[in-house]
Amino acid sequence: MTKRFENGIFPIKLWGNGERVRTVLTFGRYYKKLIKKRVKKIPLGLSGFTCPNIDGTVAKGGCTFCENESFSPNLSKSSKKFYLNPASKDNPILQKQLLEIEFQYQATKKRYEKLGYEKFLAYFQAFTNTYAPIETLRALYEKALSMDDCVGLSIGTRSDSVNDKILNYLKELDKNYDIWIEYGIQSVFDETLKKINRGHDSKNVEYWIKKSKDKGLKVCGHVIFGLPDENREMMLKTVEKSLEWGIDSIKIHPLYVVKNTALAVDFLKGKFSPITKEDYIDTLVEAFKLLPKDLIVQRVTAGIGDSTLLAPKWCGDKNMQMRDIKEALKKEGIIY
């Protein structure tokens, strides 16, 4: 499989009135050009995975915006669960995980095929998906790659949960499949990372993104707008630094507050005010002006449309968000 495009597939064009317009290189457009097929990511969430920021390895309680058992009494009362970490000597739930991959992949694939998608990437999404022994990772990744019409993997993780052995293994897989590694950057400001209890600093993220790029892997960086006490200049600086580090793709979304999180406690006490829709969209538009035309944009917003959302309420309507974002970008000659 050819891995990369030649310099900028979507050049700047002109509107009929002569104004300049740029079409954003989305994930779908990237693969449509690359393999002439409609490609979709199939999200996977497997039993046994957790995070070093939840199990106490680097911090306790998880990121302040992350729902976890310390804020969910009903979860903590459930039967004792098994959680992996890189030092686990065995994995008694491996067969269960393999079955979960098969069931989730096939069920979601059927739905996506009805929408016209033809090829798929298995997206290891929930929790930290490199935070396990390499033997387990090999079994799970290769199971996913064996599924029908799977052309690659996208692996969500933290920069403090990878090592050279894992990156070298992914490099080998990348010879025959499209392999993406997705890092949560969130912010490049260490004071912000401390406030959200991230458990590592920005230097750690920078080091492992650059190391991944040196291995020839494709990197997607996740960035959050509206983190505690951050202004627009700080948010845009995070985008700038992420680009300098060499990311191939970006996901941007607003910080929203859900129940059973430390952030929810701060919000209810009046210690945190979420970003407004107007500020978010204005900042997003400015961020797009920083992006090179060959950078793949995978996400421009996020939210949750159920009763767990506390604030901001505008994050509960994804269709409205996308409409307003597209309109704002279009005014700047940017087609998403």
State the main characteristics.
3-stranded mixed sheet, TIM Barrel, 336 residues, alpha/beta, 11 helices, single chain, 7-stranded parallel sheet
Largest sheet: 7 strands, parallel
| CATH architecture classification name | Alpha-Beta Barrel
**Share in helix:** 25-40%
Strand proportion: 15-25%
Supply the number of helical segments.
11
Radius of gyration: 20 Å
Order of helices and strands: EEHEHHEHEHEHHEHEEHHEEHE
| CATH classification, class level | Alpha Beta
Structural class: alpha/beta
Q: Taking strands numbered 1, 2, ... along the chain, how are they ordered across the largest sheet?
A: 3-4-5-6-7-8-10
Q: Which consecutive residue ranges, at least 5 long each, have pLDDT under 50?
A: 1-18, 71-79
Q: How are the secondary structure elements laid out?
A:
Elements: E1 13-14, E2 20-23, H1 27-35, E3 39-44, H2 73-76, H3 94-114, E4 119-124, H4 134-145, E5 150-157, H5 164-173, E6 178-186, H6 190-195, H7 202-214, E7 218-225, H8 232-244, E8 249-254, E9 257-258, H9 262-268, H10 277-288, E10 296-299, E11 309-311, H11 318-331, E12 334-335
Parallel strand pairs: 2-12, 3-4, 4-5, 5-6, 6-7, 7-8, 8-10
Antiparallel strand pairs: 1-2, 9-11
Helix pairs in contact: 3-4, 8-10, 10-11
